[in-house]
Amino acid sequence: MTTETKEVEKPNKTPKQETTPPPEPQVFLPADLSKFENDVMKDVITCDYARRIISIHDEVNAGMADVFIRFMNYLEDLNTSPIIIYINSPGGYGLSAIPISDRIKLSSCEVIGVNIGLAASAASSIFLACPRRYSFPSATLLFHRGQFGARRNTPDEVKISIEHRLEEEEKLFKDFLRITGWSLKELFKKIPVDWSVSIDESLKLKLVDGVITKQVKDGFFYKDKDGTIFSHMFTTTPPKP
Which among 21, 111, 150, 178 is least buried, having the fewest CB atoms inside 10 angstroms? Predict the structure, then answer.
């Protein structure tokens, strides 16, 4: 008697297909930013990564706004310590200042603006976007309406250009109006020409929180509108005068 042996059918194994992992998102490292900054924007904006200081020291423009936002993104990714913005700028393009101001307000870190020399025109808008604002004793805060020129000649085109200009000015002066409680009409009466705001008037209008009297390693001492001396340490919650 013969027994037939049936071959056991082996399950048909389909080879696994290797999947390529998704590419990791690009991250701008300090070296990348430093190279870009040194090659292109070093005369306009720089960043001290160790002290978390972004310095704006020339004209506000679209390229500078792009680098500023990259600096902010990187510093926020590092930790939640305060970011200090030093400003010494004659201003520039108002439309380029608007995204910088928006990025400051969207920051998850405390942002401290320090006027070290001049915050004029578009730069004043950036300065006022900072939740905490301080000034060196001899620094200048300057406002004006900027230049206007209609590219078209027909009455309707000129009217539209003026309307767009007014919308831009409302965005640029939004923080000034919020801080002071003024109306846009009141401000325009003040700035038919350049308006250089004195330190005392800046304190009175709350455009600055204090005047820096001494710089120390982890912060600074400042004087408020009543002449009282306070300390602002970057490692603690800032005191309220």
Answer: 21
| Contacting residues for 62 by C-beta, under 8 A, at least 6 apart | 93, 96
Q: How far is CA 11 from CA 14, 16, 134, in A?
A: 9, 15, 76
Higher-pLDDT residue of 200, 15: 200
In a domain, residue 162? The reply is: yes
Q: Is residue 122 part of a domain?
A: yes
Domain with residue 130: its CATH number is: 3.90.226.10
Task: Give the pTM.
Answer: 0.76
Sign of the dihedral through C-alpha 83, 62, 64, 87: negative
Does residue 140 lie in a domain region?
yes
SS (H, E, C) the chain: CCCCCCCCCCCCCCCCCCCCCCCCCCCCCHHHHHHHHHHHHCCCEEEECCCCEEEECCCECHHHHHHHHHHHHHHHHHCCCCEEEEEEECCECHHHHHHHHHHHHCCCCCEEEEEEEEEECHHHHHHHHCCEEEECCCCEEEECCCCCCCCCCCHHHHHHHHHHHHHHHHHHCHHHHHHHCCCHHHHHHHCCCCEEECHHHHHHCCCCCEEEEEEECCEEEEECCCCCEEEEECCCCCCCC
Q: How many domains does the chain have?
A: 1
pLDDT digits (tens, 9 = 90+) for 109-142: 999 999 999 999 999 999 999 999 999 999 999 9
Query: How far is the C-alpha of 162 from the C-alpha of 155, rounded, in Å?
Result: 11
Tell whether 229 is covered by a domain.
yes
Q: Mean of the pLDDT values across residues 90-119?
A: 94
